[in-house]
Structure formats: structure tokens, C-alpha cells
Design brief:
By secondary structure, the protein is α+β, with helices and mostly antiparallel strands. Helix content is 29%, strand content 25%. It contains twelve helices and 24 strands.
Length: 505
């Protein structure tokens, strides 16, 4: 009697389950490998198949399971060797059905919503079945669980500049494969992104946001959304390139093309971004859901024009810095139709850091020392941009107005040397040495330099009312003689509105 009730229960659960059916096909395939990646809002499984095959996917409850029936398929691996730690999967089991089909049962510790799709084979990868297990109740296409908006830390009403860092590819998407067949773009981009994150964690007035912080995939359209939710001032996508010739080398920076911008603007207005897309940058308050379509398109286009213009400016700043550590393939910011750069309210750039198909460049990009150098150059370019065009209300704007560099910290009530060192990823000894301190006693308002090597490169300065040449020289830490020489000045007379060239060394 118990067996009958169990069978009835399973049959009823199968009838009630959400099923994804695919046409049967006369294929003979092997499941060669199963790979698993954990993202913040879903778990992805990829089944590598020797040939295309059809399948049926459905769910069962009591306990929670996802069942996949592969038609005319054999299992060519041991599922017991798979690692499901830190995932909601408790086990994967298999069995034979109808003498020719394989049933895969995925045991779960909670109710999840599955979605699936197939990918055809390529020159590098087999046929694949991709199964995403989403947190229950979350629409896979609208999931916002990758990154939650964070409150922006404020200090005396001076907020941090937020830089969103998007490591390209991830998970089952390896990106470009190196000349040796081993170096993967997804690993290189994540390593550089982590170094870049660390750079901005060390600079007062900046807060980095990682679009992905481990080996999982984030949808292209979702990436700028994460930046927007975190009220980012800049979106930076990190990539590594591929080319049919091994001689291709050098870094390239891209901004969104005008043609792509027009298409994205029209789509955005048509969809109204679920009525909640804010425009106007950080702290913007303009939602397009209640606006006439023509008005909305005009406003979005204006905003996109500004974003594209600023993307060009910050891109050139980064190219200037990258030129000191690596070869540039293009010395101007290029325009391209990348979906990941389609945010209307955030300047967005994509950096191709080099070519993995070039043996020499691939080896460098795969080394920690070069990855760090690339990250430092990118951070230098970004800080140069924001120091010249400081967003209102930021700590960086206040530093500029008061003649301080980004690596200057002002001691506040309750600060200790150890706490400052910990926050900015440095050591107490380093701060004491850099500032010639004989003890760890600090005074409120005291200025501390945190990094001797970090310099802001300013190309020009527009003279304001009340400024003197000596004050400007002191602000940029250069001698009065060098400032005069750079501008062919025979004396110290200057005029309001006059533009001075600032020597960089």
C-alpha cells in the first residue's frame, strides 16, 4: 500500500510540475562532463554533450528535485566526483530509462525555478545543455539579486565616487582562449578586476563595486543595471582580445557608438525600463515611466549624449596611463556597438587589455605583476579624470578645492593609525615612514599621505578669481620655476579664466 501511495505521489507531482519539452530526435550522444557555477542569484549547470540531443526537464517536490531526461544518451562520467559545496545542490543521481535514455536527478535543499537552453558546438566547445536554477519566485530575466544597492558612505556630506568594475565573461563563458589553449579570458579579466578593486579600496573618496567577484556569468544587459543600482559614477568593463594573427597586440578602449545608442534609447523608452529607470546620474530623480514617449526619448538621448562624451574623455585619460605600461593598439577611444555599454546615465567604457592570441602578451596578461600594473594604470587614468571633473558633493571635489591629492587622508575624531591603515590596505609602518611620524599619536585635522607613488596627472588648470601662481604651483606640488617654464611666463602675473599647462613631472 505504501508503494502504491508513493507512486501516486510521484505521478501527481510530475503532472503538476512545470515542464520544458523539446522535440525528440534520433541522436546517439554521451554526457561527457558536468560543470557547476554558483552566482549570487542562481546556480548554473552545463552538460557537455558529444552530439546534439533532445531532453525533457521537469520538477518534483517532497523533496525538491529537478529531473532531466536525455533522449538516446549515455552517461560517460562519474557524477560522484562533482563538487557541489556552496551550492543549493545536495546530490546528483542518474539512472537508465527505456534502455536508451539517461535520467539525471538533481537533489536540492530548497525550491528553485529551473530554466534551460542548448548551445551548438563550436571549434572549441562541444554541444551543451545549460540549466540555470534560480532562487524561487525570481524571474530569471529580471533577477536583481547579483548586487543590492548599497548606501553611499558619507562624511560631512562628501560622498564617495562609485566605480563599477565588470570582469568580462565568466562561468561557462570562457571568452577568448589563449594561444596555448589554457589561458582563459574570464580568468584574466577577473584577476585584473580584483587588482583594480583593491586600488580603489586604497584611495580615499572612492568605492569600487564588482559586477562579478568570482567565476560565474552575468548577463550583458544585467551588468549596467548592477552599476545603476549601486549609483555608479563610472562603468568599466575589463576584457582581453582575440585575433586570427598571433602578431596582434596592444590595448584598446571602446565607448558606445552613436548608432547603438539610438537603438538602445528607442528600446528603453518602449520598455520604460519597468518604469523605474532613473536618469541624470548619481542621485538622479527623473523616471521615464510617466513621460510622453517623445519627451522621454529626447531626455534619454540628451543623457546618452552626455554619457558618451564623458566616456570618450575618461577613455583618453586611461589610454594616457596605459601607454606607460603596455603597447596601445589604438591611441584614440574607439566606438563600437557593445550591449554592455548601453547605460544612458553612466559614462561607460570597455577596455581590451591585450591579445591572448599573442604568446608574449598572453603570458604577461596571465602574470600577477602585469595584471597589477594594468590595474594601477587604469585606476590612475580614472582618478585623473575625476580630479579634473569632480562630481559635485564628492570627497574628491572637496580635496581638489583644498589642494589635496586623492591619496591624502584627513584625520577625524576617533581615528587611529591602525584603523586608517586597515581601511586603505596599507600598514602602520608605511604610513609612519611616509609621513615621518615618530609615534602613532594623531591630531584631528592632520593630513596623512597614504601612497608616495600615486600621482595625479593634470594637463591644465583654469585660473579662478583670487588665485596666485605660487598657490597653483603648491597645489600641484611643482616648483614655481617649472610652472613658469611650462607656460612661457616671464613673471607671476595671471588672469582669471587663463588656462595654465601643468607639467606632469
Amino acid at each position: 500500500m505504501n508503494d502504491i501511495k508513493t507512486i501516486e505521489h510521484i505521478f501527481y507531482a510530475m503532472l503538476c510540475a512545470t515542464s520544458l519539452l523539446h522535440p525528440d530526435g534520433a541522436f546517439s550522444s554521451d554526457i561527457k562532463e558536468v560543470r557547476v557555477w554558483q552566482a549570487p542569484d542562481h546556480t548554473r549547470l552545463v552538460f557537455d554533450l558529444s552530439q546534439e540531443t533532445s531532453y525533457e526537464l521537469f520538477t518534483l517536490d517532497g523533496p525538491e528535485r529537478v529531473v532531466i531526461d536525455f533522449k538516446n544518451t549515455a552517461l560517460a562520467l562519474d557524477l560522484n566526483n562533482l563538487d557541489f559545496s556552496k551550492t543549493p545542490i545536495t546530490a546528483i543521481r542518474s539512472g537508465i530509462r527505456n534502455s536508451s535514455d539517461v535520467r539525471i536527478v538533481i537533489d536540492l535543499d530548497d525550491k528553485l525555478t529551473p530554466s534551460s537552453f542548448t548551445l551548438a558546438s563550436s571549434s572549441e566547445l562541444d554541444h551543451r545543455l545549460v540549466v540555470d536554477l534560480h532562487n524561487s519566485g525570481i524571474n530569471p530575466k529580471e533577477s536583481k539579486a547579483y548586487s543590492k544597492p548599497q548606501s553611499i558612505p558619507e562624511q560631512d556630506d562628501r560622498r564617495d565616487i562609485v566605480v563599477a568594475i565588470s570582469a568580462g565573461h565568466g562561468g561557462d563563458d570562457p571568452g577568448s582562449i589563449g594561444f596555448d589553449g589554457k589561458i582563459k579570458e574570464k580568468d584574466v579579466t577577473l584577476a585584473i578586476s580584483r587588482f583594480l578593486q583593491k586600488q580603489f579600496e586604497e584611495i580615499p573618496g572612492y568605492r569600487p563595486v564588482m559586477v562579478r567577484d568570482s567565476d560565474y556569468y552575468v548577463q550583458l544587459r544585467r551588468r549596467p543595471q548592477i552599476a545603476r543600482e549601486n549609483r555608479a559614477d563610472l562603468f568599466v568593463a575589463i576584457h582581453a582580445d582575440w585575433y586570427r594573427s598571433q602578431r596582434a597586440s596592444g590595448a584598446t578602449i571602446y565607448a558606445l557608438s552613436g548608432a547603438r545608442a539610438d537603438r538602445e534609447n528607442a528600446r528603453r523608452v518602449a520598455e520604460k525600463e519597468n518604469g523605474s529607470d532613473l536618469l541624470g546620474g548619481v542621485g538622479g530623480t527623473l523616471a521615464i515611466d510617466s513621460l510622453d514617449d517623445d519627451v522621454a526619448l529626447t531626455l534619454v538621448s540628451f543623457q546618452m549624449d552626455w554619457s558618451m562624451e564623458q566616456s570618450q574623455v575618461v577613455g583618453m585619460k586611461i589610454l594616457d596611463s596605459l601607454n606607460k605600461v603596455t603597447r596601445l593598439r589604438r591611441r584614440e577611444v574607439q566606438q563600437a556597438s557593445f550591449q554592455v555599454l548601453n547605460s544612458p546615465d553612466i559614462p561607460s567604457i570597455l577596455i581590451e587589455t591585450g591579445y591572448l592570441t599573442n604568446p608574449e602578451e598572453a603570458r604577461k596578461l596571465n602574470s600577477a605583476s602585469f595584471q597589477k600594473s594594468i590595474a594601477q594604470a587604469i585606476a590612475q587614468g580614472i582618478t585623473n579624470y575625476f580630479f579634473e571633473l569632480s562630481p559635485q558633493g564628492t570627497l574628491v571635489a572637496w580635496q581638489k578645492d583644498n589642494g589635496l591629492s586623492p591619496m591624502t587622508y584627513i584625520v577625524e575624531n576617533g581615528d587611529s593609525l591602525s584603523a586608517i591603515a586597515s581601511r586603505h590596505a596599507t600598514s602602520v609602518d608605511s604610513i609612519m615612514s611616509l609621513n615621518e611620524l615618530s609615534s602613532d599619536v594623531l591630531q584631528i585635522g592632520q593630513q596623512l599621505q597614504l601612497n608616495r607613488e600615486y600621482k595625479i596627472v593634470i594637463s591644465e588648470h583654469t585660473i579662478r578669481r583670487g588665485e596666485t601662481l605660487s598657490e597653483i604651483a603648491a597645489r600641484y606640488s611643482i616648483s614655481l620655476e617649472n610652472l613658469r617654464a611650462a607656460n612661457n611666463l616671464s613673471n607671476d602675473k595671471i588672469l582669471v579664466g587663463q588656462i595654465l599647462k601643468i607639467p606632469t613631472s
